[in-house]
Amino acid sequence: MNLNALDFTVIGCYFIMVIGIGVYFSKRAGRSMEDFFLSGRKLPWWVAGTSLAATGFAADTPFMVTELVRRNGIAGNWFLWCFALSNLCATFLFFRFWRRAKILTELEIIEERYEGRSASFLRGFQSMFYGIAFSALNIGFIMLAMQSFITVLLGWNEYLSLAVLLGVTMIYALAAGLWGVVANEVVQFCIAFFGSVFMAVIAVGAVGGLSGIEVRLAEVFGSSTAQGLLSFVPTEEVAKPFVKAGNEFTWTLFLVYILALWWIGEKSDGNGMFVQRIMATKNDRHAFFAGVWFNIVYYGFLMWPWILVALISMADFPQLTDHKLAYPMMIQKYLPAGMRGIMFAAFLAAFMSSVDALINWGSSYMINDFYKRFVRPGASQRHYIWVARGAMFVVLAAGIGVWSMTDSLADAWKFMAELFSGLGAVWIARWFWWRVNAWAEITAYILSVVGCVAINVLEMYGIVFPEAYRYIMICVFSVAGWVTVAFLTNPVSDEKLKSFVMKVNPGGPFWQRITRQVDPEKLPAGPPLTFNLISFVLGAVGLFSFVFGLGSILFTSYIKGILMIVLAAVLGAIIYRLEQFRHEAEKAA
After folding, report:
1. Is there a domain that residue 556 lies in?
2. Average pLDDT over residues 45-64
3. Which of 47, 402, 424, 552 could form a disulfide with 557 if both were Cys (CB 3.0 to 4.6 A apart)?
């Protein structure tokens, strides 16, 4: 695909815009670490929520959705949809705890909750692991997707092209911190979302409209297979040439996704960039609505354009086995002249909006939770900000290293899900059970990694476990270990636990031994745990009603789709009223 002068003008204007935004916010970011990493805790809900959606909409996301759908039809996307439950859980159950803690980074909660050398070690380890390794893994996957886009569509030198993109991203991320990152992400999201919708509209129009998708699939694979590919749940009727042995999406795997995967993994209590944006909002209400807005936009609107293009690509390129190339090949086939620059800018926006967030977030751990905590406490805010800018280069360099070793996006993400599937239980338990200590969490890390490595080593020797059982096996192995260690090691002292309860007050029956020792007037006001659980269930039903109602309308099941969207609207109104009731009760208390 060749770019003309107009296309290059659009791309040039985009680069000038993002750099200009970075320069504009550079003064604000340089005032303090809170400004550099949390935008001074002044973000409105719609900015924070849109920023989260932009971060989730990386250059690799449409490629990965395409790969999942091409393997197992629409139902294959449940690997991503199930994580909506993680984000809803964080929104309805945990965001208030993070807000009450009043911390700069989420890792500070470790020494708020635990004590002693084990807590210090855990915080230091996580600061390096997530600050460098985890951030690098994500950056590497995003770079792999952008490499595919550049080489397939443009034929440019991927090394030089990625170097330019990363250089521009670093300019505004270094200058403006989270202020510039978030401001750019809002603009980048609008550009990227427009590009995705435009691509879907063009591709759908080329096959004769939405009803033409099933017709095209039936022509290539047969009518029964076409119906199976359009099913929202697993079915035997999928295009077998697209499915490798061991990658079949079975009902067992589906149940593991919706009942377990979303909470046994590393996002179970909302950690990561989700918590960073939540803590950067103005107040609790803005934090809550930021989480709700993100879930609606990301899971309700963003994924359907990618799914539509992925389905059409199955009929257009039935022999393609490197599935991550299908999306850029669709752009190359259907994109009209004059729109190339805008589509390229959309992918630039998706790429940069995720990389900038990851390097800012990763450096916040390295500086606040390692450098400031263990190396040089008590230095000036200006000193920490400059060291943080240096740490950003470390994160980026590690990401480049991961990129050089990665091949399949979907397989890489599933490996990460396995690697962390022993951690979610202990992260949830630490909020609701006083007996959890730092040694238990350290044990969960060790056993999760050991379990994941053991399963993959056994696979090399011909002992293969289905994907559905791999997550559960690692989780059970880890839970059995860390619960045992929790009982065999000394608990956190009552004084430390009382301090934590007076600050956060998670509530629930497993804190009663501690809360009885605390004056009730010193506990933060809040609704009972059952209140939040009810809101979480209503939110989950409402979100998926909206997602699949919209999907039903796209595939011409209009009555079913409208009824589901009406149900989502009713549940949304109930949740809004419950949130108002909670806010009024806390204000009165």
Report:
1. no
2. 87
3. 552
